[in-house]
Amino acid sequence: MGMVRNKYIQFHVVSVEKGKRVRKYVSRKSKLVPQLAQKSYEQKLKRELLKRKKVLEKAYEVLKNTSPAAVYERESPDRKKLISPLIPTEEQLIEQWYDEHRGEQNTYPMGTSYTTIRGETVRSKSEKMIADTYYMAGIPYVYEPSLIMANGHGRKPDFAVFNVRRNKTLYHEHFGMMDDDEYRQHAILKMREYNRNGFISGDVMIYTFEGEGIPFDQDELSGLIKAYLM
C-alpha cells in the first residue's frame, strides 16, 4: 500500500513481459482491493502452513522410529524378569483390555450360528466375516460385550474393538436387515440412543449395514479399520 495524491493505492501484477512483471496501480475505492488483500493473506498463510508441515514431517520421521515402550522390549528375557516397565507394552495393553472387556455377554438364544477363525460362535455370516476381518488385521476384538450407557440402559453391541496405538475402545454395530421396515426403525432408534449417550459414530462407534440385494461390503469395513483402528 502507498500514498499517491492523497489516495491510498495498491498495485498488482497484471502480466509478465520479457521476464519483467507489469504492475498496475489500483485505487483504494476499487472493488479489486479487498480481493487482492485476501489473496495476499492466503499466500502468506500457505507459506506459513508449509513451514509447519515441513517441521511436522521431520518430527514424524524422528518419532516413528522411537518408542518408549520398546525400551523394555529390547531387554533380554532374563533382564525383563528383573524390571517393572513404567510404560505398558502393546502386549500388556491388549491383555489388560481383554480382562476389562468380556465377550459373549448376550444371552439371547442363537438361531443359526457360524464359527469364526478364532473359534467363537456368532449369529450371522456377516458377523463371521467381520470377526475374521478383525482377526486377520490383528485388531483385538470381543463379540457381544456388555455396555452400560449414561442413561443406565444396557446394550450388547455386536463387537468391541481396541485401537492399541491410541489405547481406545470402539464399538461396532452391524445392522443386517435394513430392508425390513420394523428392523430399520429399531436400528435408527438404537443409533440415536448411542448418540445421545455420547457414543458418537466415527469417535467410539462403527456402523455397517446390509439388506436384501445390498450385501455386506467387506471393503467398506477394511476402510473403516484403516480410518479408526490402525
Provide structural commentary.
This protein is of the alpha+beta class and 230 residues long. The protein has seven helices and eleven strands. It has helices spanning 32-63, 68-73, 77-80, 90-100, 125-137, 181-196, 218-228, and strands at 2-4, 7-17, 20-27, 114-115, 121-122, 141-143, 147-148, 154-155, 159-163, 168-175, 205-209. A four-stranded mixed beta sheet has the order 6-9-10-11, with helices on both faces. The protein has a three-stranded antiparallel beta sheet with strand order 1-2-3. Helix 6 links the parallel strand 10 and strand 11. Helix 5 (125-137) crosses helix 7 (218-228). The relative contact order is 0.08. The model has no long low-confidence stretch (mean pLDDT 87).
Give the secondary structure arrangement, pairings included.
Blueprint: E1 2-4, E2 7-17, E3 20-27, H1 32-63, H2 68-73, H3 77-80, H4 90-100, E4 114-115, E5 121-122, H5 125-137, E6 141-143, E7 147-148, E8 154-155, E9 159-163, E10 168-175, H6 181-196, E11 205-209, H7 218-228
Parallel strand pairs: 10-11
Antiparallel strand pairs: 1-2, 2-3, 4-5, 6-9, 7-8, 9-10
Helix pairs in contact: 5-7
Label this structure with key terms.
230 residues, alpha+beta, Trna Endonuclease, Chain: A, domain 1, 2 domains, four-stranded mixed sheet, three-stranded antiparallel sheet, 7 helices, 11 strands, extended
